[in-house]
Amino acid sequence: MNKAPVTSFVLLWMVFGVGALASGAGASEPIVLWPNGAPGEIGVVGKEHDTTAATNRFVAGKRVIRLSNVSIPTITLYRPSKHKDTGAAVLVCPGGAYHFVVTDLEGTEICQWLNSIGVTGVLLKYRVPTRPGDDTHLLPLQDAQRALGLVRFHANDWNLDPKRIGIIGFSAGGHLTAHLSNNYERRSYESMDEADQASCRPDFAMLIYPAYLVPKNPKTNNYALSPEFRVTANTPPTFLMQTEDDGLGPENCLFIIWR
User: Alpha-carbon distance 100 to 128, whole Å?
Assistant: First the structure.
């Protein structure tokens, strides 16, 4: 019997059940990652704004936020209710093709789901769009390294378990998740304070319909893992999810499994 195709967005809705969630203890004020200005930021983008247009398709009947021109990256903590709180935390990296950040569908709603199972969600608003010359997305990696290290540094202050801090990413955010999971030993920027001495290695990672992991070589027509992913025995335990009919191509997950 033929099975109807299941799109990634529908599968996301089924797995996380975001439509029926109640929020936890609420969100913190956004915390600026770089109080003295983000490294490598040269002011080439305009004012931060939602780029969603009336012509953009709805997801599950809802409009989504596509935030672009982010030059001041932040994290926002979403805490579960005290009677559910497990002490675990997850850095949430929304997608958006590195052009924008989908801060609700792949951000706040995911944080709410995490809260429902007693986990603190830490929503990362990283720098987009891709800056000229930043083909390997170094600036978002800097933001992710800084963010996870900051969470671990403040674990005691925020009543978190420093050994249970993971990361989840969607689409381009999945790429960013993989990037951090394999590039945590050295910071990609000069240390600015004590928080940068804390480890930025995620304790676990979840890649949800990740993008750009295995580009096809136009000469050989073969796939290869992007060189920025130096997978080793120390790469955090990683969960991968992608549907067969994903427009990004299931190869992004299948290649990693097969290799």
Answer: 6
pLDDT value of residue 76? 98
The answer to whether residue 1 sits within a structural domain is: no
Helix ranges restricted to H, the chain: 8-16, 109-116, 138-153, 172-181, 251-258
Residue whose C-alpha is closest to residue 208's, from 180, 241, 239, 236 = 241
Q: Are strands 31-32 and 74-79 parallel, antiparallel or unpaired?
A: antiparallel
Residue ranges making up the domain that contains 244: 8-258
- In order of 4, 211, 235, 246, the CA distances from 258 in angstroms are 25, 17, 16, 18
How many other C-beta atoms lie within 10 A of the C-beta of residue 4?
A: 5
Q: pTM for the complete prediction?
A: 0.86
Structural domain total, the chain: 1
**Pair of tokens at residue 136:** 């390997």
How many angstroms separate the CA atoms of 100 and 79, rounded? 25
pLDDT in tens, 110-137: 999 999 999 999 999 999 999 999 988 9
pLDDT digits (tens, 9 = 90+) for 58-99: 888 889 999 999 999 999 999 999 999 999 999 999 999 999
Q: What is the CATH number of the domain that holds 226?
A: 3.40.50.1820
Coil, strand or helix at 239: strand
Write down the pLDDT at residue 1.
Answer: 35
List the one residue out of 161, 186, 179 whose CA is nearest residue 226: 179
CA dist 188 and 147 (Å) reads 13
pLDDT at 7 over 70: no
Residue 234 is assigned to a structural domain of this protein: yes
CA–CA dist 147, 105 (Å, integer): 20
